[in-house]
Amino acid sequence: MTVVSQVILQADDELRYPSSGELNNIKDYLQTGEQRIRIVSTLAENEKKIVQEATKQLWQKRPDFISPGGNAYGQRQRALCVRDYGWYLRLITYGILAGDKQPIEDIGLIGVREMYNSLGVPVPGMVEAISCLKKASLNLLNAEDAAETAPYFDYIIQAMS
């Protein structure tokens, strides 16, 4: 949910107008809109490149994942892993657009540990994968945009750890 939606819903629940502090939060959110759109555009336009680089980094760090018996052994399993990496990257863009981590929580993190555990996917491996996605993504951004983006990746990493 965006800052604007949160302010409106909270004020309405309390039958009041938004406070000056809430209006300042909306103002700050709107002022960062161009940056958020720039970041999301860069990530979306480079999704394939980011996922390929992150996958390459992960397989170099953890060749056991793609070896016989590993969770990413075989074309089908690798394709599923790569699909998940793209999904997490897209989830990051939702949070950045909203200027809030709540979409990440609502759409992607509720039950994620349980799901991966039930599928036999090692959660620490997913944490490593998200770290690789973070590194590949931040390398495409300028320092200011990277600083704005990193906490969204860190939020997922922390939630899975």
Task: Tell me briefly what this model is.
With 161 residues, the protein is mainly α. The chain has 9 helices and no strands.
Topology overview:
Elements: H1 3-13, H2 20-31, H3 33-45, H4 47-61, H5 75-98, H6 102-109, H7 112-119, H8 123-138, H9 143-160
**Strand-residue fraction?**
under 5%
Roughly what percent helix? over 70%
Q: What is the assigned CATH homologous superfamily of the largest domain?
A: Phycocyanins
Q: For the residues shown, what is the average pLDDT?
A: 90
Number of structural units classed as domains: 2
CATH architecture of the largest domain: Orthogonal Bundle
User: Judging from the principal axes of the Cα atoms, what is the shape?
Assistant: elongated
Structural class: mainly alpha
Described by strand count, sense and barrel closure, the largest sheet is: none
Please tally the β strands and state the result: 0
How many H/I helical runs? 9
Could you name the CATH class of the largest domain? Answer: Mainly Alpha
**Can you tell me the residue ranges where pLDDT is under 50 for at least 5 consecutive residues?**
none
- Under CATH, the topology of the largest domain can be stated as Globin-like
Radius of gyration: 18 Å
Q: What is the straight-line distance between the termini?
A: 24 Å
Walk me through the structure.
The protein contains 9 helices and no strands. The mean pLDDT is 90. The chain is mainly alpha-helical. The radius of gyration is 18 Å and the shape is elongated. The chain has helices at residues 3-13, 20-31, 33-45, 47-61, 75-98, 102-109, 112-119, 123-138, 143-160. Helix 3 (33-45) crosses helix 9, helix 4 packs across helix 5 (75-98) and helix 4 (47-61) packs across helix 8. The longest helix is centred in the middle third of the chain and has 24 residues, at 75-98. It has 2 domains: 1-31; 34-160, Phycocyanins (Globin-like, Orthogonal Bundle).
